[in-house]
Amino acid sequence: MNQLNRVVGIAITLLIGLFLTQSAAYAHSDKDQKTKARPGRIVGIYDVDVVVADCSTGATLATFRAMHKYEFGGTGQIVPSTSPIALSEHSMIWSHVRGNDYRSAAKMFRFDPAGNNIGWIVIRNDVSISNNSSSYSGYGVAEIFNSDGVMLGASCPSFSGNRFTGEW
Questions:
Q1: Residue 77's CB: how many other CB atoms inside 10 A?
Q2: Assigned domain for 168 exists
Q3: In the chain, how many domains are there?
Q4: How does residue 30 score in pLDDT terms, banded at 50, 70 and 90?
Q5: Does 80 map to a domain?
Q6: 51 is in which domain, residue-wise?
C-alpha cells in the first residue's frame, strides 16, 4: 500500500505541475495576443482617393480611386482604378511603426501601349489609421525606374479613404 500511495502522490504532483505550466503558457499566449492586436488593426480593405503630385512643386499630376488591401503577416495589394494596360497590380509589404502609424512599400510593373515591360515603380508610404480603424490616410514617394533599373524620376502620392465593409 505504501508503494501505491507513493505512485499516486507522484502522479498527482505531475498533474498539478502540468496544469500549472499549461495555465502559465495560456496566460502568456493571451498576453502576446493583446500586445500584437494594435499592429493588426490595419488589416482589411480600404476604398481610397489618391492624388499624385509633383514632389518639387506640389502640382497635381493625377487623381484616381484605388483599393488598398492589408493582409495578416505584413503583405498586401493595391489595385488602382487606372487602366490595367499601363500598370500591373501593386504587390505590397507593410509594418507597424507605433500606435496608429504604419509604413508600406509597393512595387508594380509598367508597360508601353504594345504591352512591353518598360520598367517598374516602387512606392514607399507613411500611413496613419484612425482610432476606430474606419479610415486612414498616407503620403509617400513613388520612384519610377526603366527596365534597366535606372531611376527616371519620382512623384509624391497622398491618399485618404475608408475601410471597405461591403455594407449596403
A1: 15
A2: no
A3: 2
A4: very low
A5: yes
A6: 39-163
